[in-house]
Amino acid sequence: MSSALQYPFTEPPASGHRIQVAPGVHWLHFPLPFSLDHINLWLLEDGDDWTLVDTGFGSRATRELWRAAFDSALDGRPIRRILVTHYHPDHIGQAAWLAGHFQAPVWMTEGEWALTHRLQTASDEAVAEGFRHLFGRHGLGGDALDTLAGRGNSYRKVMPELPPAPEIIAEGDAVSINGDTWRVHIGRGHAPEHACLYRERDRLLISGDQVLPTISSNLTVRAHEPDDDPVTDFVDSLRALRAALPRDTLVLPAHGLPFRGLHERIDDLCAHHDEQLDAARDACAERPLTAFDLLPVLFKRELDSRQLMFAMGESIAHLNCLHALGRVRREERDGRLYHIAV
């Protein structure tokens, strides 16, 4: 944990229970079946009901925890509205089921809904072909590429059902919850149109994955947008958030503990990606590199197949950023894309 950050809560709530972190704002903590082993969800008092921010992973185990939480964490009160920060299945995975159970509308941004719909409805064959084309062109091959392509549409496996068409929210919108105004701030890079929510009266930010206290969210390039530059999008939107919100904002992240020190954390995140860009450019100055060649420079640990997928997307993202900045040029050789420092 950064010494520049302050953590007013030292422990998360037990699964299925809640902790109040601010007037009308309660913290839920659900497990995830990954190395990133939890997600924070936020219950906002809304009259005699609740507004829920994010829903948990699309698994049977999460659904069973929710069933127990209906009486414990929710006190038997219904959820009247479900607000989803972005498309990742640990955030939207239970949205369809909860929306059906409570007859509650889902609210999210247009960009996140469009990507959710695109990913969930893609065929296994289209997803496999996308992996082969994007990652193969960037240097991944052999069994590793076959394994990733062979997974088919893994998104649909944990998102078997789309939620109902949502109410659309956008940058600057004011969402009224229990008489309070929560202002929508959009983050980009980790997701196309990630919704963060800010309550001005007590300087409270529900940041989702856009600002996390101890890690940087994955910035990936997707097969249908191979020249996308999520690194620039991420850094630019972080700097806009820093300019808009005060330093002493209490940040409620999707992973990790709530913290204060928003400006310092954003500065650290921006510096981290500057360092990654410099390291990638320096490596490309020694010899032409594919995104696959660059993995040991950007990632100092062994990668399993799931981590390899995210790492390849992030390696491509940093090379796309360097190319957009004119710091590397591209050269195609035998169907693979190499990057050379300029």
UniProtKB/TrEMBL annotation:
Q: Which InterPro entries match?
A: B_lactamase-like_C (IPR048933), Metallo-B-lactamas (IPR001279), RibonucZ/Hydroxyglut_hydro (IPR036866), Sec-metab_biosynth-thioest (IPR050662), WH-like_DNA-bd_sf (IPR036388)
Specify the Metallo-beta-lactamase domain's residue ranges: 38-255
**What is the top-level taxon of the source organism?**
Bacteria
Query: Which SUPFAM superfamilies does this entry report, sorted A to Z?
Result: Metallo-hydrolase/oxidoreductase
Please name the Pfam families in this protein's record. Answer: B_lactamase-like_C (PF21221), Lactamase_B (PF00753)
Provide the protein name: Metallo-beta-lactamase domain-containing protein
Q: What organism is listed for this UniProt entry?
A: Alloalcanivorax profundimaris
| Lineage, broadest ranks | Bacteria, Pseudomonadati, Pseudomonadota, Gammaproteobacteria, Oceanospirillales
